[in-house]
């Protein structure tokens, strides 16, 4: 199944599948707490599902009305990206930058400058492929939480990244990398 928006997830949700097409859907995002609420008005009843998204919070897929919101990595470059799911807040050796069970995540605390070396599992994502993303299938869900390019320097937004420096993102976001000026150029999109 391809990428699904939050509205698509709600429309495909087993809990809302019998709802009439004329129902109202309201999506709101409250800052700075970054609390997202989804409200669907069904005739005279209201179904309210809420969940908390913290910026750059690594976790598992979030169940929203029977479907799953999961982090996604899209590698539209000719190089292999490295990704991880569920990094663990347990320290790795400070001198170890390439160990397959450590990630030096540059935004661990939610912003750059709050970097930390944590336990993780490196997984390869080949050229021109993707992993994770929203789904209504409980069996095929993958939540990508952080990514890097282990064998080359790369760019995140306007920030130059050194090979092996990881960026973490929330489970309702997509990390997408393209090739630009001979390097992977990456952005993260989606609500906080």
Q: Strand-residue fraction?
A: 35-45%
The tally of strands reads 18
Mean pLDDT: 75
Q: What helical percentage do the residues reach?
A: under 10%
Tell me the major beta sheet.
7 strands, mixed
| Helix-and-strand structural type | mainly beta
Order of helices and strands: HEEEEEEEEEEEEEEEEEE
N→C terminal distance: 24 Å
Count, helices: 1
Shape: globular
Which ranges are low-confidence, i.e. pLDDT below 50, for 5 or more consecutive residues? 12-57
Backbone CA Rg: 18 Å
Q: In order across it, which strands form the biggest sheet?
A: 8-10-9-16-13-7-11
Helix-strand layout with pairing:
Layout: H1 6-12, E1 24-30, E2 35-42, E3 45-52, E4 62-64, E5 67-69, E6 72-76, E7 81-84, E8 88-91, E9 102-105, E10 116-119, E11 123-125, E12 129-132, E13 146-148, E14 154-156, E15 159-161, E16 165-168, E17 174-180, E18 183-189
Parallel strand pairs: 6-17, 9-16, 14-18
Antiparallel strand pairs: 1-2, 2-3, 4-5, 6-12, 7-11, 7-13, 8-10, 9-10, 13-16, 14-15, 17-18
Short description:
With 192 residues, this protein is mostly beta strands.
Structural summary, described in words:
The protein has 192 residues and is mainly β. It has a 7-stranded mixed sheet with strand order 8-10-9-16-13-7-11, with no helix packed on it. Strands 12-6-17-18-14-15 form a 6-stranded mixed sheet, with no helix packed on it. A 3-stranded antiparallel sheet has the order 1-2-3, with no helix packed on it. A hairpin with a 2-residue loop joins strand 17 and strand 18. About 24% of the residues have low confidence.
């Amino acid at each position: 199944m391809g990428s699904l928006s939050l509205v698509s997830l709600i429309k495909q949700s087993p809990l809302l599948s019998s709802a009439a097409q004329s129902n109202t859907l309201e999506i709101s995002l409250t800052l700075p707490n970054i609390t997202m609420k989804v409200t669907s008005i069904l005739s005279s009843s209201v179904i309210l599902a809420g969940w908390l998204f913290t910026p750059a919070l690594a976790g598992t897929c979030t169940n929203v009305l029977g479907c799953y919101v999961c982090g996604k990595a899209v590698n539209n470059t000719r190089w292999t990206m490295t990704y991880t799911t569920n990094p663990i807040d347990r320290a790795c050796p400070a001198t170890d930058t390439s160990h397959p069970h450590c990630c030096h995540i540059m935004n661990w605390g939610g912003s750059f400058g709050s970097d930390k070396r944590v336990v993780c599992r490196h997984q390869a994502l080949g050229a021109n492929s993707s992993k994770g993303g929203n789904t209504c299938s409980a069996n095929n869900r993958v939540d990508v939480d952080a990514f890097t390019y282990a064998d080359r320097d790369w760019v995140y937004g306007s920030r130059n990244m050194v090979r092996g420096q990881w960026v973490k993102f929330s489970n309702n976001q997509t990390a997408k990398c393209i090739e630009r000026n001979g390097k992977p150029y990456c952005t993260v999109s989606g609500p906080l």
